[in-house]
Design a protein that fits this description.
The protein has 375 residues and is mainly α. The protein folds into 2 domains: 90 residues, no CATH class; 233 residues, MetI-like fold, CATH 1.10.3720. The chain contains 16 helices and no strands. Helix 7 crosses helix 15, helix 10 runs antiparallel to helix 13 and helix 15 packs antiparallel against helix 16. The longest helix is centred in the N-terminal third of the chain and has 35 residues. The chain is flat, with a radius of gyration of 32 Å. About 2% of the residues have low confidence.
């Protein structure tokens, strides 16, 4: 009797399985989400909404007497509302919510950047015409009206800030090393940390008054010196250096220290040869940023270094001119013709912006150049 062969089973088609899975996934999803997978606004919709907002703002300004800022706010509200409504109609509620939050974040970014752009544009447009060779190489000695320059103030700024850096960097670095490597959680470390936090938030004029009071007690009243300004700036700079160096030292891996200790290297040599070189990039960038932070201070220098019209390169004798105070006096007490004084003030402000931006770029370059090389 012949044996019957088992019935042949049909092989499943992989393409058919994938299509069934895809159809099942779409079938069991909420309708709004399923629709959102296939429908979306075009890429130019955001730009169209922004354009609509600008048109509304321009119309409000042209028709009414409202302030430009109020018109811009009204245009932003209309543009965002139109954008969200269109997204809700095409993409669904979830995508509309995402679009709304994205629009709010974008508007917040623009609001934050606009004042910076306005300040930079105003300073550059008003200060650039007077930024010439005479301004950089001449002082105000014997100048009554037009002409002259800020050479004496530029040199004074470099000298005062340089001395403040020489004072602050060693003190701040040593303090940070103590807090991270030696202090631990003892009482002195807690006190030092508290004082650093307090000094970080003090008004800059307090630092100037401290330096003025110190030199008045020692040398008598009426004294104005460049070193007084350096002491005032160092009071502001030390806590910034401490915080920057402390954070960099804390991120050095503990295994590097332990490896050095295992080889019998003493702690002080481990700090000098292992810890500090590893954190050198962050320390250098932090120090440069601290210099940029105090380079444009005006209040402490108003009461310490005073103002001078001639070049004085000795910080321990007589008054000195610095760029912030020079710009302040040029704009506060203009002579005749006043426009010449105002132009010199704007150019001084432009030089300060250039100095701070240069220091920030230098901090990034140093951080990249001194970063540990890894393969």
């Amino acid at each position: 009797m012949a044996s019957q062969s088992p019935p042949e089973t049909a092989q499943d088609d992989p393409r058919g399985d994938e299509e069934q899975d895809r159809s099942a996934l779409t079938r069991y999803q909420p309708p709004s989400l399923a629709e959102s997978m296939h429908a979306s606004l075009p890429r130019w919709s955001g730009a169209a909404a922004a354009g609509l907002g600008l048109l509304v703002a321009a119309a409000v300004v042209a028709v009414t007497d409202l302030h430009v800022a109020v018109a811009v706010v009204a245009g932003a509200v209309v543009g965002i509302a139109a954008f969200v409504v269109a997204s809700r109609a095409v993409e669904g509620e979830r995508a509309a919510t995402d679009r709304f939050v994205t629009a709010l974040v974008t508007v917040a970014f623009v609001v934050a950047v606009l004042p910076l752009v306005s300040v930079v544009w105003t300073t550059v447009s008003r200060g650039l015409p007077r930024l010439d060779a005479a301004y950089l190489t001449q002082s105000m000695y014997g100048i009554i009206g037009e002409g002259g320059g800020a050479y004496h103030a530029i040199m004074g700024t470099l000298i005062v800030t340089g001395i403040a850096t020489l004072i602050s960097v060693p003190i701040g670095t040593m303090t940070a090393i103590y807090l991270v490597e030696y202090g631990g959680d003892n009482r002195l470390s807690k006190v030092v940390t508290f004082l650093v936090d307090v000094m970080t938030g003090i008004p800059s004029i307090v630092a100037g008054l401290f330096s003025l009071a110190l030199f008045t007690l020692v040398f008598g009243p009426g004294l104005r010196l460049g070193i007084m300004g350096s002491i005032a700036l160092s009071v502001l700079m030390i806590p910034i250096v401490v915080r920057a160096v402390e954070e960099m030292l804390r991120i050095v891996p503990a295994r590097l220290r332990e490896s050095s200790y295992a080889l019998g290297v003493p702690k002080w040599r481990t700090i000098v040869k292992v810890v500090l070189p590893t954190a050198a990039s962050g320390i250098a960038s932090g120090v440069v940023l601290a210099v940029a932070r105090v380079a444009g201070e005006t209040a402490p220098l108003l009461v310490t270094v005073g103002i001078a019209s001639s070049t004085n390169l000795n910080p321990f004798e007589n008054r000195m001119a610095v760029l912030p105070v020079f710009a302040y006096y040029q704009i506060k007490f203009p002579g005749i013709p006043p426009q010449a004084f105002i132009d010199r003030a704007w150019t001084g402000a432009l030089l300060l912006i250039i100095l701070v931006m240069t220091l920030n770029v230098a901090a990034r370059v140093l951080a990249r150049a001194l970063a540990p090389k890894t393969r």
